[in-house]
Please model this.
Amino acid sequence: MKKDYIMPSLNDARKRNKEVSQKLLFSLDEKYKQLGEGKRYFIITHGCQANQRDSETMAGILDSLGYTSCNDEKDADVIIINTCAVRQGAEEKVLGEIGALKRLKMKNPELVIALGGCMAQEEKTVETIMEKYRQVDIIFGTHNITSLPKLLYDVYTSRKRKVEVFSKMGEIIENVPVTRFMSHKAWVNIMYGCDKFCTYCIVPYTRGKERSRDKNDIIAEVEQLKLQGYKEICLLGQNVNAYGKDLGIDYTFGDLLNDVAKTGIARIRFMTSHPWDFDDTMIEAIRNNANIMPYIHLPLQSGNSEILRKMNRRYTREEYLALFDKLKQQLPGFAFTTDIIVGFPNESDEAFEDTLSAVDHCQYDNAFTFIYSKREGTPAAMMEDYIERSVKEERLQRLNEKVAYYANKNNQRFKDQIVEVLVDGISKRNSNIYSGYTPENKLVNFSASDVKTGDLVKVKITEVMSFSLNGVMIDKDH
Ligand code: 5AD
Ligand code: SF4
Model:
């Protein structure tokens, strides 16, 4: 590998220190300002909400360089693929996608293909791309998004491939341009990175240490979004209840929720809470502010204490269930969802049964379920695993049936009820059908006329399915 490539190192990414992250302000060098004149870009986004929000930053940067976005990759002068590394399947999909882009590159050798996101943080991926996927011109890491102007400039001027992936912990960069993809709902980062080091998870390596944004920057962003007409914001972090801990200040996520609620924005959500540190200030804040939505995503991962210990989740089955019961009791009417992994190395039948019984206990509104995927560089990748793939698939199937049963059961309470829906848009298949979400994050498809994205409407639910509700609009709020 060439010396002037800045290559990732999962080993370096593992390191943590106690230093408070530095805050830097983004500024654009004059020489890059016309870089994109007359050129078009297309961004492909994989993965979680953090990636969605990062793609909006990439778009914002490209727009500030004079590029314009296009709706078809065939028309693009720059294609960015923002990748996810959380499971093997996501990675394979990306490699297939890059393979297919070779055709476009052959037709248009001027096309610049850039690969960013979590996969770029893995040595193994970068080596594979450099050797086998020569159509990729730029590889940039999750900490290197603000280097896009320089990387594009360097590729245009030298026609050489560029790799810039920092594995260090990263700073907080404010004032970065953003082009939001929606006009009614917005993602707001409150912290970056993760220090939890669950043994199966690659995220602490690909996204660095926990770094909280200054609360004033967060509140100012929400106020600005409200002025721009946004109806809903989602506060984002791998682990939002750790907010503020790295800053060494006496101000927690619960305090932030109270302050964000005071902005008066219509709907506030947050993602993701770790059961660890879900404190009473947070519960109080959620209960006392009507604009904090009645929906909590609380990843379980496994219902067996021994597996949870091997996962380094920091709670036992009993502790999770006690927290869940407390939330359920103190937050009536709330919807609860979770994440569950089946087939963690050497998960026994009994351990899996514990997961099923935890689902019976919690009766979630929905669950995102996954088969464990081995991530190179994580502690779990070194654990022995004799469980056959077919057993894991069968477990997933059984779990999904249970999840669907409770999803359906929970949705029954909405039958014939009038719910408030924030309209996302019109159905692609039927122009009289709109869709949107209730405060509890239930997807509603409803018939209406004269409705637009961002309207808050009242819908009478006529039909209940496991994962969505059908209804008819009866009134418009505004
Ligand atoms: N294999 C399977 N699922 C995983 N997740 C994270 N890492 C892995 C992995 N190696 C799941 C967890 C997490 C969600 C975002 O993805 O359930 O909560
Ligand atoms: Fe991964 Fe665990 Fe951090 Fe979530 S809390 S991002 S599962 S290490």
About this structure: Residues 102 and 135 are 6 Å apart (CA to CA). Residues 389-411 form the longest helix (23 residues).
